Design the sequence.
């Protein structure tokens, strides 16, 4: 069982109910949710129910789920990383990677640092065979984090979302990294 994962600057830990205010604040920044829902904020009720769901997921699959990212030392909440099987289905061979960080820390490599640590953990300790990630085609920062984490472009596709947001006409993209590829190049540039 692992409860924490440390990187040079980050501590990844399980969410707790006490993170509700920080989750509401994170999604209260329209730049953060721009490529998620077009810039809408999350209600307190929604944040609470997401945390409740995430707490349940920790019990289902040890080592996988939504991980709060805090600054090492200060404990300041910076955002989160997702690392879990799509749809929550076994076996844990394929895992989806995602991330969302507070705007004030963007551009300093935090997303790449956390993603690489989760990928390493997944391939070396958690039995993961393939890591995948999706984002809107126009979300260039997210795509760059995927590339810097070693994921490779797989496909572009269009799917029906409940509502259209700016840039969604360009569709979505999928990136992936297999264990064999990672073993060949464990520390991508
Ligand atoms: C995506 C996100 C997590 C990246 O976090 P971060 O800590 O800034 O990421 P990093 O610093 O590790 O890397 C970002 C890279 O994207 C690049 N980048 C940022 N904005 C860009 C843009 N508009 N166009 C092109 N590249 C861009 C940066 O230059 C950097 O690449 P570099 O190191 O080669 O210069 C952050 O922007 C975020 O939380 N966005 C909102 C939520 C979101 O969209 N999540 C993904 C949804 S799938």
Sequence:
């Amino acid at each position: 069982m692992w409860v924490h994962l440390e990187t040079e600057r980050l501590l990844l830990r399980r969410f707790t109910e006490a993170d509700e205010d920080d989750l509401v604040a994170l999604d209260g920044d329209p730049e953060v949710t721009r490529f998620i829902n077009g810039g809408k904020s999350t209600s307190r009720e929604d944040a609470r129910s997401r945390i409740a769901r995430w707490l349940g997921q920790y019990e289902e699959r040890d080592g996988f789920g939504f991980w709060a990212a805090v600054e090492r030392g200060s404990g300041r909440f910076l955002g989160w990383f997702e690392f879990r099987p799509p749809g929550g289905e076994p076996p844990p061979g394929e895992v989806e990677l995602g991330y969302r960080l507070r705007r004030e820390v963007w551009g300093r490599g935090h997303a790449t640092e956390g993603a690489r640590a989760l990928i390493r953990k997944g391939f070396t300790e958690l039995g993961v065979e393939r890591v995948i990630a999706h984002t809107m085609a126009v979300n260039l920062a997210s795509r760059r984090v995927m590339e810097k984490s070693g994921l490779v472009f797989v496909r572009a596709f269009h799917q029906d979302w409940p509502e259209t947001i700016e840039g969604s006409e360009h569709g979505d993209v999928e990136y992936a990294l297999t264990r064999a590829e990672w073993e060949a190049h464990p520390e991508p540039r």
Observations:
- Helices lie at 20-27, 34-37, 44-60, 110-125, 140-148, 179-184.
